[in-house]
## 1
Amino acid sequence: MRIASIIDISLVDVPGIPVTVIFTGGCNFDCPYCQNAEIIPRISGTEMAIQDIVERSTGNLVDGFCITGGEPTIHGDLPDLLRALKSTGLHVNLNTQGSVPSVLEKCLPFLDSVWFDIKAPSETYLRISRTSTNPWNQIVESMKLLLSSEVAFWPRTTFTRSLLSPSDISTIMLVLEGMGFQGEYVIQNYVASAGVRPSEKAHLKVPDISEIESVKDNVPAGIDVRLEWR
Ligand code: SF4
């Protein structure tokens, strides 16, 4: 598996749990607002054996692991890494956009929680993923897998007004409601961090929270919206 970097301790990636963060290299999407754009290419990072990743990632004063990227599920040996991390007895969290349900399904036995990035509703998905075909059916399949599992499902969406509208966010909430989801849905602002490509930054505007607050007026029963402005 290609590994871009490993951060020994993070206090912000999993709520209330200090974790070691493992960034896998490569992604099958090309989101304009990607904060880790330099690791989108499939050849990014370094090829590492599962055992070497585990040795490099364990032994820190943490209570868990967060596996992010890039898109971790493009790596067919991800379940092997998760199995090894889970055997430590610590919390295992995965960040994914859900486009590879066949791999995600094999990961489920070794996961405690998943941050699930819902990029957009079906109709506007390609505007953000910039893939050759719309992966919406795979996204839905992945959400169904998670919702029928014991794994904590934490949906979230990155908002910038030039790519999404409040109505898009409302549509996503209706999809979640239709799938039987109950719980917290996080909407976070796009941040023009150092990892975003300058060519993309030129077209993206950091949103003001007032641009999205209206979605709180019409939230389906059982869903709590949390606006996370960073
Ligand atoms: S899915 Fe995530 S890692 Fe991949 S391009 Fe989009 S924001 Fe970046």
## 2
Amino acid sequence: MDHYYNGIIDTHAHYLEHAFEEDRDQVLELQRENGIIRIIENAVDLPSCASAIALAERFDHVSAAVGIHPEDVVGLPEDWLDQIARFAGHPGVVAIGEIGLDNYWDTPRDLQNDVFTRLLELAADLGMPVEIHDREAHDEVMEAVRRYKPSGCLHRFSGSVEMAKEAVASGLVLGIGGALTYKKSVDEKAVVQELPLDCFILETDCPYLSPTGYRGKRCTSDMISIVVDEIASLKGETPEKIIEVTSDTAKRVFRLP
Ligand SMILES: [Zn+2]
């Protein structure tokens, strides 16, 4: 990368993934040097909830989100929800995530629905924001949003301008990452152009979804600088303005330190 901007918050990362097994600590330190002021590590299952919290304890620029990913809902122990509730009480935890619905993989839909709605209820009970995964499940996710009125974000937003407006009116913000830079991401670009800047937060979903120019490479938080340039050009604003507004929004939504 030829430039890194300062002051960026990566609101959605998976540094616990195997891709970072060899050099996780060094990569996390490097992110701080490359201008990333905070990373929200999203757990996907019960073991990674504990590991995400441990990561937040070891790195003061890392916070954790605890939840069950829709692809990981099979085979949960009976007390899974109590376990998540206990994890959520840790001071390093800022959100319930990653939770949601996925119609791309063939995980049983009734089970996905049950886990998702229980976690939305838990977030409401605890007064915590959520990080929602929506893959090819726009209608079902919006039904749940209407019913449970969560705060937080729709991560890797891939819906229409109309859906974006409804989600924002309901109190959510939209996670924008590497996918915005892809040529085929026509809807994503339209959403960024049409909605006000304070509806968006920055994210990676790393090690996945590397921006254009880095496809096939392991994604890291510092690649968000490329996404910032794309948003800046779509909105006719400076990169500094994009970072100022999105980081303010992330701090507000997740009550970050
Ligand atoms: Zn994710």
